[in-house]
Design a protein that fits this description.
65% helix; alpha+beta; binds zinc ion; 29 helices; 5-stranded mixed β-sheet
Length: 588
């Protein structure tokens, strides 16, 4: 395995600041307990690092032939790119790989242990770390269902503990308060009653996930009944309740598919849903969801009309509903852990989910073959990422290359994901192509720099189109970034002045050109600070002071400290009676 991680790659994954600090961390030996495990298609590195807001942070990085596959750290850093701790860990790995102790994978560690031994082990672990209890409690319903024999979408008999009465009362209480306006709502945020109703919807879905479809059916049906009972679109002018109604329909259809209803209960439920659909407020767009529920009741797991031969029998909306029913069936089978039934159904109706399931259960060659039938960019991206995760980097790259040409959403994201992988394989021409596609979708200075770096002698031919693209954008940020990158100070100044209402742009250019165009900086900065001071609002003084700071630096650059001193002294005298301003310009 050729894991060729370079310092350049590490640098590109982090901001300049994170990279510098990461170097310091690495050099001062802040990383400890470094270890490596071999995984499918790569290695996983773990370590701890000394921290500032906690005694230590835990780090985990996955590497494969494409470079860094994933990286995580428990520190609070959240400002884009890798944090300094990850930088330090990666630097340690490329410089001192021998420091990383070799670890067996969890799979290897547990191999050969019998059930009793495993249970005893888990008990001891929970005793030592009580937090593990919560993780176990959450994971066990799904594990239990996965362990059950496949039941091809029919009912699991069990007596549910969910009470219809209690749920109905609770929902009614929330709705009454909502319509009376008893909830305190902050402007622009989700109203409290919508969150409370969302919690009930969430509870219904949890029952579904835990295998109690009877309980889920009660909760979701009652929720839908009560929500639609007195629905009034005038009261629900934001459409918040309409959203909850819409969101309830798919899980309710899945609950119906997961239980075995006797004929009487089936007909009663069908009638209820028919009535809801007929009496629904005309303003609400929940027809699709309700039609889906009715379709689930009508067809259950029976064969659906054939889209090829019976296309003309029904309208387009109806085919869409039947497609949603197929998705609902897949969700049920996925939840029940019935991979064979899932694959049989998905093979005919959903290539993406079919392929992802094959990957999930380790049938990778079949997955790669199936991925050839994918048709749009976002599906190709989803599958390519999974293929990389399971160690099939080359197949992932091949699929992503095709995905670039398919059309659909996520083209920009796919291209940016693919480009560094192509580069890691030494295929700079393909990396360049991917970056050009990404730039065309959404121009950014970082992408511009990659294209410049990779295009070699062709740069002169490529550059004009990139500048033209950035010029056409409403926001001139990228264009200014490009001019600054190219040290074309006068063009940057021209754009910033044309867009002078955009203060960020003006500040950015002023900061960048102090060493090269100090006269301009002095002129524009004085104008800005004068305007701000004139407004006599103390909240503007800090901004004025920042402009004055630029004036000072520009004078210094010109070797005219005395001129600056005269100016600031004069300013202090003029505004002697403005203490708030004086405070801000104190240190200048
Ligand atoms: Zn960190």
């Amino acid at each position: 395995m050729n894991l060729q991680l370079t310092e350049k790659q590490i640098r590109e994954r982090a901001s300049d600041q994170s990279f510098r600090k990461g170097q310091d961390y690495y050099e001062s030996g802040a990383i400890y307990n470094p270890a490596r495990q071999s995984t499918s298609g790569g290695v996983t590195l773990t370590a701890q690092c000394e921290g500032s807001s906690a005694p230590s942070y835990r780090l985990q990085v996955e590497l494969d032939e494409g470079g860094v596959r994933s990286a995580s750290c428990t520190c609070p850093y959240d400002w884009g790119g890798d944090c300094k701790h990850i930088v330090a860990l990666l630097l340690m790995y490329i410089n001192e790989p021998g420091e990383f102790s070799e670890q067996e994978s969890v799979n290897e560690l547990l191999a050969g242990l019998e059930k009793d031994a495993l249970v005893a082990l888990i008990l001891r672990l929970v005793e030592r770390d009580p937090d593990l209890y919560d993780a176990l409690e959450l994971a066990i319903p799904a594990a239990k269902i996965a362990a059950q024999p496949p039941s091809s979408g029919t009912a699991r008999k069990r007596q549910t503990q969910v009470s219809e009465e209690t749920n109905r009362k609770q929902i009614n209480r929330i709705l009454k308060q909502a319509y009376r306006g008893d909830y305190y709502d902050e402007w622009g945020s989700t109203p409290g009653y919508v969150e409370d109703l969302g919690d009930i919807l969430g509870t219904g879905m949890k029952f579904l996930d835990a295998g109690d479809a009877e309980g889920a059916l009660i909760i979701l049906r009652v929720l839908l009944e009560e929500l639609t009972e007195d629905y009034d679109s005038n009261m629900d002018y934001d459409g918040d309740l309409a959203c909850v109604i819409q969101d309830t329909c798919l899980p309710l259809a899945e609950a119906i598919l997961s239980v075995e209803l006797d004929p009487g209960a089936h007909d009663e439920l069908e009638e209820t849903m028919q009535n809801i659909l007929e009496n629904l407020d005309e303003m609400i767009e929940a027809d699709d969801g309700l039609e889906l529920i009715l379709a689930a009741l009508e067809y259950g797991w029976n064969e659906l009309p054939d889209e090829e031969t019976e296309w003309e029998e029904y309208d387009e909306d109806y085919w869409m509903i039947l497609n949603q029913l197929k998705q609902a069936r897949l969700n049920v089978l996925a939840r029940q852990g019935d991979s064979d039934a899932f694959l049989r159904l998905a093979e005919k109706s959903d290539t993406k989910r079919y392929t992802l399931k094959l990957i999930e259960i380790g049938r990778l060659d079949e997955a790669v073959e199936a991925s050839e039938k994918l048709e749009n960019t976002s599906d190709a991206f989803a599958v390519a990422q999974k293929l990389r995760e399971v160690g099939r980097l080359k197949d992932a790259i091949a699929l992503a290359e095709k995905g670039l040409e398919m059309g659909g959403y996520y083209l920009n994201q796919l291209a940016l994901w693919l480009a560094p992988l192509e580069e890691s394989q030494g295929r700079n021409d393909k990396a360049l192509l991917a970056y050009r596609i990404a730039y065309n979708e959404s121009p950014k200075i970082e992408i511009y720099c990659h294209i410049k770096r990779l295009s070699g002698t062709n740069w002169e031919n490529l550059q004009p189109a990139l500048i033209k693209k950035a010029s056409a954008l409403y926001s001139k940020d990228v264009l200014v970034d490009i001019y600054l990158e190219e040290k074309d100070w006068d063009s940057a100044i021209r754009v910033a002045e044309q867009d002078s209402w955009s203060f960020n742009l003006l500040e950015k250019v002023a900061d960048a050109v102090i060493p090269y165009r100090p006269d301009w900086v002095i002129r524009v900065s004085l104008k800005q600070s004068d305007d701000l001071i004139e407004k006599t609002q103390s909240k503007l003084y800090p901004i004025a002071a920042r402009w004055l700071e630029r004036v000072k630096r520009a004078y210094r650059k010109k070797g005219q400290d005395a001129e600056w001193q005269a100016y600031i002294d004069n300013l202090r005298t003029t505004y002697a009676r403005r203490p708030a301003l004086q405070r801000e310009i104190q240190g200048l």
